[in-house]
Every structure is written in structure tokens, then in C-alpha cells.
Amino acid sequence: MNETVRIFHNPRCSKCRQTMDILHDKGLNTSVIEYLKTPPDITELTEILQMLGIEPRDLMRKHEAPYKDNDLDNPELSREQLIKTMVANPILIERPIVIKGNKAIIGRPPEKVLEIL
């Protein structure tokens, strides 16, 4: 049986929709998490960052209002503070994120997800 692939998805995002098409074309069991409605908690986001091998700011959408409103480019903010802010403001989280097993990748461009499938 196929392992379920998780995707942190925003249905309004064209890259998310294109990534979903790739997953469906591959016939994969897919668990869709609309992260704006059901954001990851601190532990889950920390695990995702670890799987991606990046730091919180590398996963942030820096042009979103909460980034500027929360002064998130302040170098004195801790990793934990940045993660908490992302959980409280999930619009800051870059998408789509696809997770298979203990591997994760950001689907930008969407074809990048093929690297972990």
C-alpha cells in the first residue's frame, strides 16, 4: 500500500493546485491540510523545518503584512519567537509543503516535489 503524502495547501494558490495535480497524476494517497484553517502547531512546524533543513525565516513569506507588522526581520528575534509567530499567522508559511515519510520539500516550482516521491 502506498504511503500517504501530506500537503500543506492553500486552494487559492496556483502553485498548490499545480502540486496537487502532480500528486494526483502519480496516484498517491494524499492527506490535504488547508494550513490557513488548520495551521501546524509549534512542534509540527519545528519538525517540518527540520525535515526541510531550513530556518524559520527561510519558510516565511516576507511580503505578507504580518511579516512587517511583527518586525520579523529583526535579527534579535529567536527561532522560537519566529516559529510562534508563524503558527499564530499561518499566512506567513510558504506553500505548498509536501511531506513523505521523514522528507519534506517546498513545491516551488511544483515539479520540485518529484524529488521526494
Protein described:
With 117 residues, this protein is an alpha+beta fold. The chain has one domain: Glutaredoxin (3-Layer(aba) Sandwich), CATH 3.40.30. Helix content is 32%, strand content 15%. The chain contains four helices and four strands; from the N terminus they run βαβαααββ. The radius of gyration is 14 Å and the shape is globular. The chain starts with a strand and ends in an 11-residue tail after the last strand. The mean pLDDT is 96.
Reported CATH architecture: 3-Layer(aba) Sandwich
Shape annotation: globular
Q: Major β-sheet, in short?
A: 4 strands, mixed
Alpha-carbon distance between the termini? Answer: 14 Å
Strand content: 15-25%
The oligomeric state is: single chain
Which runs of at least 5 residues are low in confidence (pLDDT < 50)?
A: none
State the order of secondary-structure elements, H for helix, E for strand.
EHEHHHEE
Strand order of the biggest β-sheet: 2-1-3-4
The CATH H-level superfamily is Glutaredoxin
* CATH fold-level name: Glutaredoxin
CATH class membership: Alpha Beta
Helix content: 25-40%
Radius of gyration: 14 Å
Number of strands: 4
Structure annotation, total helices: 4
Estimate nothing, just give the exact number of structural domains. Answer: 1
Average pLDDT across residues? 96
Helix/strand structural class: alpha+beta
